[in-house]
Structure to design on (920 residues):
């Protein structure tokens, strides 16, 4: 079977790859591009561990085909920090112990970023619904929700 | 004795050592390991709940281009009928090999029948479809009470109920009966003013770790094997794989990946022996990853259960007798957590007369694995619900009733031991004094309370402490870190050594690089491996003092270790500048060579833990949907080494318990096939289902640990079900006895309890 040639931008880098027509974006990221920070928890779009941002939209990489990335901008967890500086959400997750095992964390951080990008002033309820597509079995979400609310408050402070 | 001094590092909230790796995607979990030339391994699973495997023809699969190896049960040697410890549970080797790969029978839908290794996933998948299995389908049984009945389909014709005299002659699905007695329950009920009796059930629930099982094996031609896997115990994986495949432990090196949740479910082997066997046959590395569906169908959920509780109390609230029967599904092979379920059932209370009987029952479901306080939540759901009914009936505050009957130091348990220093009373008092309990229940809402107990575990641990030439320290242990244990171990090491936490780097070593460590389970790591780390650093400090004594030419007794440096014990010793860890490390070659501390131990005296949870909720009578408004978990945690991760254990356990109470269950069709093997239909709590989980950390230090550590991870999953059930009973007047209290079930129960409204 001939492969599809895809030209795209991943974490700010122009990227080209070949993929099978049936290959998911998740498998492309993990198996073709060695970007294993994006995790597979279910393969059916129910857990959010493979959350990525495509253009400005939060998607489950397991529900997108690799071929669909043609001409788009893709952000994965590997592109969230800037050089040696963690994104404020990443820093806050560490400081507030918003992770235990850490396997949901990349997807959770990407979903939290997508949430704050479109709503910089979320209520607790909005954070909870914004992250409702991302399963975490360890934390009970308490420290995650607090961390996201904290970052939102700090970012409002600095942009004022 | 508890030390009154304030610690410098213990009890502080430092950033975890693996934090940056885990927020950037660098951390490598089970499925993130690859080797050049690796093959993809896949498993063929039984479509039947119960069937004889008459024959398996793999010839077409083996002949498919790209297929490099095929294995079936015949590739795994027969094993003796012998029990081995696995986490908090015990397993039988004869059964373990059959669970890894079926031999004469398929015993549940999803049971592994054969496996292939091929160059690509697509080829492996195609090969599976070419394997021809001739099944003779047998009648099956899922439900625990059904499986116990005469005439139920028998899973194992050789099984006779253990613990019954005289030994039965007939085969049964009841693998074992156990009994615990204290006082005389029958006589005790004679002293009771009220007696309440009720039956309860629970459905099997899955641990629900987000990371599926994954393993990568590389077997070399000389018999050496390397394995990378996601597990709670790589030494356990080594032990099982070596037994199942006739390898020596020195031939198999197991490296644990970061682990994406386990909760007890990653204490046994599924893929690992298969990946090794395929790699041996193919001569190439083999990687296997379970799909989520396979995780649900073929890896261990916990038992579903049936529990009958009869409890008698006096008018003043004194519980005088309890008679409890617990029957738990073990899945396809014997070994449910019915033992701990029976033992924990009444452990919160100091009651004179207790009788508990337990049954371990096999049925055509995946073999259960440990799940957080294995068995305890099931008996507690029943017992704590009945305790609440007693409180309601006698019109006594549920915390006061528990205080009146609380276990304390000196209480003799119904399963044998007498409690040492425990914190049940302190935990109840803290719950009563909590802001939540002192607040008024909002109109339209109701409040429920329940308690929980877990023994906690000690067992075998090894640790080492190495000083680098600059004086920074590596702490090496062998327990996969699920929820921040590296941070806790480093805090204790920094405290002992008197150096900055950031100068201590804790790592989890592979099976060839540190001595044996029992699994990460039973809430044992911070206690037992923590003790090994403390002892290893103390061994190192002893050597550091010797090196200083040598440099100063004084007796070693004249040197003390304080604040990270060697100092003369008094001015009489002489006038010496203190020697820091860095200085002693720099001169190590001249004073006797590298400075490394070691410790290995079997930790005794794990301190039991007690928890009390409080929940406020409201019930929508039309839909049966429960909305939790406020939730508080109170627990005796001994000493909170890293309070954030201790709180995290309480919050996570409570959330799992809430899922168990309200939504989670395995649903089977009439043919014994699981209908909901995915996160869409197996409904775990999401962020919008829950409120903040408030925590109250009660600290009653464990005298058997230098920092007073008690395990904390298990207890918090025990109280939620009964706390929620009791809140619902108080909100609606209907006492639910079957879990989960899902919207359809609750709404049906409410309809049945309400007199029909006249048709309008």
């Amino acid at each position: 079977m001939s492969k599809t040639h895809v030209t795209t931008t991943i974490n700010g880098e122009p990227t080209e790859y070949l993929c099978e027509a049936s290959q998911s974006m998740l498998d492309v990221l993990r198996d073709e591009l060695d970007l294993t920070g994006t995790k597979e928890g279910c393969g059916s779009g129910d857990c959010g561990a493979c959350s990525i941002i495509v253009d400005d939209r939060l998607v489950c990489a397991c529900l997108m085909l690799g071929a669909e990335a043609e001409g788009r901008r893709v952000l994965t967890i590997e592109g969230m920090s800037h050089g040696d500086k963690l994104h404020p959400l990443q820093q806050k997750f560490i400081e507030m112990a918003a992770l235990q095992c850490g396997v949901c964390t990349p997807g959770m951080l990407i979903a939290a970023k997508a949430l704050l990008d479109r709503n910089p002033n979320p209520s607790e309820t909005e954070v909870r619904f914004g992250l409702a597509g991302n399963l975490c079995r360890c934390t009970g979400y308490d420290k995650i929700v607090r961390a996201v609310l904290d970052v939102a408050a700090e970012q409002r402070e600095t942009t004022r | 004795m508890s030390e009154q001094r304030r610690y410098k590092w213990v009890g502080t909230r430092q950033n975890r050592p693996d934090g940056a790796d885990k927020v950037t995607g660098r951390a490598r979990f089970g499925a993130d390991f690859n080797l050049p030339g690796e093959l993809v391994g896949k498993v063929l699973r039984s479509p039947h709940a119960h069937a004889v495997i008459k024959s398996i023809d793999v010839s077409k699969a083996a002949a498919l281009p790209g297929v490099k190896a095929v294995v079936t049960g015949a590739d795994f040697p027969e094993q003796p009928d012998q029990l081995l410890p696995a986490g908090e549970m015990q397993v039988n080797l004869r059964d373990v090999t059959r669970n890894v790969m079926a031999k004469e029978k398929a015993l549940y839908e999803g049971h592994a029948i054969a496996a292939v290794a091929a160059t690509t996933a697509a080829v492996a998948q195609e090969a599976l479809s070419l394997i021809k299995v001739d099944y003779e389908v047998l009648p099956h049984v899922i439900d625990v009470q059904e499986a116990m009945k005469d005439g139920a389909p028998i899973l194992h014709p050789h099984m006779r109920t253990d613990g019954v005299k005289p030994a039965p002659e007939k085969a049964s699905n009841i693998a074992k009966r156990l009994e615990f007695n204290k006082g005389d329950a029958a006589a005790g009920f004679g002293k009771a003013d009220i007696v309440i009796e009720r039956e309860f059930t629970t459905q099997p629930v899955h641990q629900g770790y987000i990371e599926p099982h994954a393993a990568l094996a590389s077997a070399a031609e000389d018999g050496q094997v390397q394995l990378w896997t996601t597990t709670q115990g790589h030494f356990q994986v080594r032990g099982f794989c070596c037994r199942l495949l006739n390898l020596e432990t020195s031939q198999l090196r197991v490296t644990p990946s970061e682990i994406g949740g386990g909760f007890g479910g990653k204490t046994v082997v599924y893929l690992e022996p298969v990946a090794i066997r395929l790699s041996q046959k193919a001569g190439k590395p083999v990687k296997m990853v379970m799909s989520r569906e396979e995780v649900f169908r073929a890896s261990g959920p916990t038992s579903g259960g049936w529990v009958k509780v009869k409890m008698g109390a006096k008018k003043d609230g004194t519980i005088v007798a309890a008679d409890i029967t617990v029957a738990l599904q073990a899945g396809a092979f014997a070994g449910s957590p019915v033992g701990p379920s029976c033992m924990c059932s009444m452990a919160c209370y100091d009651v004179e007369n207790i009788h508990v009987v337990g049954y371990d029952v096999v049925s055509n479901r995946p073999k259960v694995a440990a799940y957080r306080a294995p068995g305890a939540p099931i008996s507690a759901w029943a017992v704590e619900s009945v305790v609440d009914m007693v409180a309601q009936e006698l019109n006594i505050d549920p915390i006061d009733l528990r205080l009146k009957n609380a276990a304390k130091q000196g209480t003799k348990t119904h399963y044998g031991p007498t409690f040492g220093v425990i914190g049940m009373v302190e935990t109840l008092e803290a719950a009563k004094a909590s802001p939540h309990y002192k607040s008024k229940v909002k109109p339209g809402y109701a409040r429920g309370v329940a308690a929980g107990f877990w023994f906690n575990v000690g067992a075998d641990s090894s640790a080492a402490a190495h000083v680098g030439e600059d004086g920074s320290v590596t702490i090496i242990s062998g327990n996969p870190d699920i929820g921040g244990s590296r941070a806790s171990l480093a805090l204790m090491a920094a405290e002992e050594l008197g150096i900055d936490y950031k100068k201590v780097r804790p790592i989890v070593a592979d099976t060839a690089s540190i001595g044996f460590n029992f699994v990460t389970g039973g809430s044992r790591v911070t206690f037992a491996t923590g003790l090994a780390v403390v002892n290893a650093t103390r061994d190192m400090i002893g050597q550091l003092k010797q090196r200083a004594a040598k440099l100063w030419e004084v007796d070693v007794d004249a040197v003390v270790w304080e604040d990270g440096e060697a100092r003369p014990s008094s001015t009489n010793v002489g006038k010496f500048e203190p020697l820091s860890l860095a200085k002693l490390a720099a001169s190590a070659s001249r004073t006797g060579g590298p400075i490394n501390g070691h410790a290995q131990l079997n930790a005794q005296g794990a301190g039991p833990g007690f928890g009390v949870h409080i929940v406020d909720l409201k019930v929508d009578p039309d839909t049966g949907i429960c909305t939790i408004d406020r939730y508080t978990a109170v627990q005796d945690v001994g000493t909170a080494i890293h309070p954030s991760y201790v709180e995290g254990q309480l919050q996570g356990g409570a959330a799992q318990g809430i899922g168990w109470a309200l939504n989670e269950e395995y649903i089977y069709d009439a043919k014994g096939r699981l209908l909901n093997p995915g996160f869409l239909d197996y409904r775990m709590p999401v962020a919008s289902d829950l409120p903040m989980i408030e925590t109250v950390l009660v600290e009653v230090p464990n005298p058997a640990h230098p920092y007073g550590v008690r395990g904390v991870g298990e207890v918090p999953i025990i109280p939620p079900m009964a706390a929620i059930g009791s809140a619902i009973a108080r909100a609606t007047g209907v006492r639910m006895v079957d879990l989960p209290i899902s919207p359809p079930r609750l709404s049906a129960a409410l309809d049945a309890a309400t007199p029909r409204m006249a048709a309008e």
